[in-house]
Amino acid sequence: MKNKNFKRKKISSENIEDLIRDLIEGDRVALGRAITICESTIVSDRVFANQIVNACLPKSGNSIRIGITGVPGVGKSTFIESFGQFLIKKLHKKVAVLAVDPTSGISKGSILGDKTRMDYLSREDNAFIRPSPSGGALGGVANQSRESILLCEAAGFEIILVETVGVGQSETEVKEMTDFFLLLMLAGAGDELQGIKRGIMEMADGMLINKADGDNKVRARNAKKDYQNALHLFPKTESGWIPKVEVCSALENENIDLAWDLIDSYFKETKANGFFEKQRKRQRISWFKAVLNQMWYLELNKSEDLKIRKTILENEVKEGKLSPYFAAKELIKEATKK
Amino acid sequence: MKNKNFKRKKISSENIEDLIRDLIEGDRVALGRAITICESTIVSDRVFANQIVNACLPKSGNSIRIGITGVPGVGKSTFIESFGQFLIKKLHKKVAVLAVDPTSGISKGSILGDKTRMDYLSREDNAFIRPSPSGGALGGVANQSRESILLCEAAGFEIILVETVGVGQSETEVKEMTDFFLLLMLAGAGDELQGIKRGIMEMADGMLINKADGDNKVRARNAKKDYQNALHLFPKTESGWIPKVEVCSALENENIDLAWDLIDSYFKETKANGFFEKQRKRQRISWFKAVLNQMWYLELNKSEDLKIRKTILENEVKEGKLSPYFAAKELIKEATKK
Hints:
Two copies of one chain form a homodimer. Chain A is an alpha/beta fold. Chain A has helices at residues 16-24, 28-39, 45-56, 76-89, 104-107, 141-154, 170-177, 200-203, 216-233, 256-272, 275-299, 304-318, 324-336, and strands spanning 64-69, 95-100, 127-130, 159-164, 180-186, 206-210, 244-247.
């Protein structure tokens, strides 16, 4: 039997190698533990976290990453429950579900917080479901989620679903870490749209009108036509792909295969024309820049004095009383003095 | 007579005060010279530049800032020529025209490079036209343009038109430094749209279908209807403002007043509901963050060795061979070692 000491004991330089080996063999407990280490706010854990990320990096990348968004009530969880089972049972894939919620640190998180929302999916051997990390962690929520994706891939998960709530910058962040961006909508395009932030529609590679069941069926078909028309007015995507609209009912498990066909044809097209790899490379660079900015920024928080100074300067700039150059110079001077 | 030595001589701590005084009195030559100093790539000029910006800051802000974008060929210059004269002659305003073109450093700039494109406007006493800064300058093109806006305002210009070519990040940057974002379009919505980047339509506070002259009139009216319908599908804006579409012909000077009415009603609404000031404050903070990131980034370019190291690390990250954390840590360590 393998040494699974890491499950009970605090992680150490002795058992970290075991953890990584088990993760790469596909052990979900090891995967969960590794993600926890990467999410840790304890500074000393970051050494282990970096070791894990570095070890997983060469084994990562062989998946497709799908971002999923939509207003609360659109049925994201029901869709993922249904779609995930389709991928596992029909296509025999290993599916990981992650969540990005920048507010979870404050609100203690509703998103995926309650795993029973995906009752059937969470019982599948080939599924891995992970709630949103708490917002308080060192690397920022988005950077943590990128690490979680890598770890899931290294553990052999082939399809990564990244769910986001439509709060703050979360969609832009999820778009930046995924290959395909799916927007779930409701039939009866109108009031329901108010909750979607501007710019999201144009970010979508595909739109899925959910809850097309019962009386809603006709409205959903009409909405599909409206959105398809609106999408034609949109400028061409860089990938050459023309965003498509489909209609489904996650609740009644209807047309889930059409959703997959839509996504699958995107991947065929963008892998063939080179956009897939091009986008991945660009995403790695922008991750690098985000990490770099983040690390510089941490320098500004290393003492209480500096934090107070930052707040004061920021306020003066906000009121138009101080030039940003002057304020930035002041701050950097104080941050770098030994 | 005033001492206008700064016009001929190299700027010095003796004549900088004169330059600033003349600028604030509305002297366009002083304004032009001051912008040149802010755009200078000579490090020692930055001291003067900061002095100018600091002196202008209390006098700035009392203008409306309008960003203007659209694909090449849509008639941006003709529109600005016509719109600018309308503002000066009918409304008795002082109008400054700036350009943001991140590529001008590379391509030697077509945008506003040829001032004769705005032949009549450039001869107006109450107009100030300034081509795009070269991309090589210290502060980055976007930060320079923000400074130029402040300087124009301090010189008494009441309406600042910021033109952008649709390249790279330029629209997002112009959106970030203006109050109102105007998208110029062509009639016959279709192929002409291909050049507009995705996300731009949803950024617009107003759309103007230009070249509605001759045979194009009917097509322009139809396009207006189409876009107005599409805009209804878009989520609500944070400002509460509903983006509007108008039709005009800059060439034949038709409906230029309608364009102004559209923009003017936006300003009335957003000044009344507080969004105007809220957005300005947010923009100042994001400018501050941009300057801060920029200054940190300069630290990474302070030696040849460091630049080479950065390129190598960046490439490894891009190919997925190195973790961004590892690379960022390496870089910062080398940049901060004394």
